[in-house]
Amino acid sequence: MSKLGYLVAAVLAISAMVVAWQAWQSLASVQVGAAGIIAMILGAVGALALGGGLIALMFISNRRGIDDEAGGKRESKIHGPRE
User: Which end of the chain is more exposed for a tag (fewer CB within 10 A), N or C?
Assistant: First the structure.
């Protein structure tokens, strides 16, 4: 990646952090009840479980060769026909 790419990525990351910080500070006076905390915990656990499950399915599919023949044999312009 070029130096310009790194610069753009750094500016975007810093901008996202500034926006997140401002949002966090503007919500400092908001009270979250027990139901809100439970909902956040369940949402985080559910997102992690979904991500982990999808990654597991990807590894299982790769190891068993389930999608090796999906799409048939294609020719690459660079490497020639696939085996």
Answer: C
Band of pLDDT at residue 70, cut at 50, 70 and 90: confident
- Domain layout of the chain by residue ranges: 3-25+32-66
Q: Across residues 8-28, what is the average pLDDT?
A: 94
Task: Look up residue 2 and give its two tokens.
Answer: 């070029």
Q: What is the pLDDT of residue 44?
A: 96
